[in-house]
Amino acid sequence: MQSETGEYMVTRIEAYDIQERQPRSFELYEEYSQRPIAEVIRTRRESFDKADLNAKRELLTEVEREVKNFCTWLEDTKDLETTTAHYYSASLKSLLLGLPVGVQVARLFGTILDTQDRK
Predict the structure, then answer these.
(1) What is the pLDDT along the chain (119 residues), one digit of tens a residue?
(2) All residues at 6 or more sequence positions from 30 whose CB lies less than 8 Å from its CB, including other chains
(3) Pick from 10, 17, 66, 109: CA 20 to 30 A from residue 55's CA?
């Protein structure tokens, strides 16, 4: 039974294109926060760049709390399954810190800001 569930989850995950999933999480976050994601990224990146070690820890704690609250909001408001809500919320963590992690996220980070600058 467990292998069937695992195979089902892998199939579902593979069925989505990464480029289609990420913008959906941005849209949901913007709905949740009532702020444009580009504005959040810029503000957080500036705060993190200027912060000393203690302030960075506080920012990390704040983001952890926001990710958890966003996950709960997704489950309660959008009726998403726990695993899906966790995926959407956790995938935004580095962006909410203003820190691109990895090449794909760094490109995505740049694309978001470039797109918003053109508007």
Answers:
(1) 444 455 444 444 444 443 444 568 888 999 999 998 888 888 888 888 888 999 989 988 999 999 999 999 999 999 999 998 998 888 888 778 776 555 455 566 566 666 666 66
(2) 36, 37
(3) 109
Count of domains forming the chain = 1
Q: Is residue 39 part of a domain?
A: yes
Give the residue among 107, 116, 97, 119 at the shortest CA–CA distance from 38. 116
Domain that residue 79 falls in: 16-118
At 33, which amino acid appears? S
Token readout for 64 is: 């952890």
73-105 as b/e: b if 16+ CB within 10 A: bbbeeeebeeebbbbbbebbbbbbbbbbeeeee
